[in-house]
Amino acid sequence: MPDAKPIIDPRAVVRRLLVLLPISVGISVVVALVSTGTREILRLEAFSFWLFAAAAGLRLVPWMSKAFRLTNWMHFLGHRFSFADGLRISIMSELGMALTPTAVGGQPVKAGMLYQRGVSLGEATSLTTIQTVEDLTFYAIGLPLALTLASLRAKAALTRVMEREVMGTGGWLIAAGVFAAVLVAAVLLARAFGVFPKLRRRLYSFGNEFKRLYAEIIKRGKQRFALNVAVAAVHWVSRYSVVATLTLSLGYEVNFLNFLVLQWVLFAIMAFVPTPGATGGAEGLFVLLFTGVLPRQALGTILIGWRFLDFYFTTILALAVLGLGRLGSRAPDVVKD
Question: What distances in angstroms separate CA 139 from CA 132, 145, 260, 264, 306, one per listed residue?
């Protein structure tokens, strides 16, 4: 049986968040002030209460959708696993996303919690990667249609992003050099400690189980996959509708399709921001994308509202669940039906 040590240490999480959240809030406020040049962003009472609450509800839909998708595959694999179990893992993976770079996300937490419950390493990893495959399938189907139907204003915003370099040539060369040096050092250390022979054996075992699981999904899991792709569509449309709903709550007209396309680009680029929760990069990208789409006087206010709901609200709520639900204690094992 895997070690029952908690995947997430509540005290360590609180210590890190006490440092990260104030920094992130400060960055959001500074970017909003600079982008609008006005203190009107501090008048957050301008939001309609009910539409703001609706935006908060939309932001929580991904918790439910991820729980459903995970539960669907766990039942397919013959595990006794409830929606509540999936919801706990979904919430804790969200908390993991707040503490790690966006590209890492909450997948290690999800895989770790599944493994701790008795799911094999191959199955746990497969269950995290299949979610990415489902998301990419949704994008492959929905994104070309959305881009075709998007208005000229949204397309102009996308062109503005593509023409803007994130780093100069020198910056990319320095980043590549640092990465190469770290990689060489890691390889030399691993070789010195005899890591490679052990790793080769584990990867062989993991690879066989990984391939077996995906072959099983292809053979008799097509309907479940199609259902999960449909739920993934609900997941992303809900999350991408938060900014549009906040804009509506301030009394402005909204083209939902434009907002969906811009949010997709925003989240895609945020994946490369190397800070927990994409702090700093998320705010800058939001301003870059939505300048000219949102009224200038509302840009900062909507930025603050979006970051609050998309990052601070969910992080604090997940932290409350971690404490109230005693999720640091030993979880029950998953058993086969």
Answer: 11, 10, 12, 9, 22
- Helix axis angle, 242-249 to 222-240, nearest 10°: 30
3-state DSSP assignment of residue 30: helix
CB of 312 within 8 A of CB of 60? no
Binned at pLDDT 50, 70 and 90, residue 299 comes out as confident
**Residue 61 and residue 240 in contact, taking contact as beta carbons nearer than 8 Å:** no
Q: Which amino acid is at 303?
A: L
Q: Residues 84-114: pLDDT tens digits?
A: 999 999 988 888 777 776 666 677 788 888 8
Q: How many CB atoms lie within 10 A of CB 107?
A: 18
Structure-token match 């990984």, residue found: 210
Beta bridge partners of 276: 101
- Highest mean pLDDT out of 39-43, 54-58, 195-199: 54-58
List residues bridging with 79 in a β-sheet: 336
Measured between alpha carbons, how far apart are the two ends of the chain, in Å? 18
**Structure tokens, 186:** 């890691």
Q: What is the DSSP letter of 308?
A: I
SS3 322: helix
- Res 71: pLDDT: 95
pTM for the structure as a whole: 0.76
Residues linked to residue 294 through DSSP beta bridges, in sequence order: 291
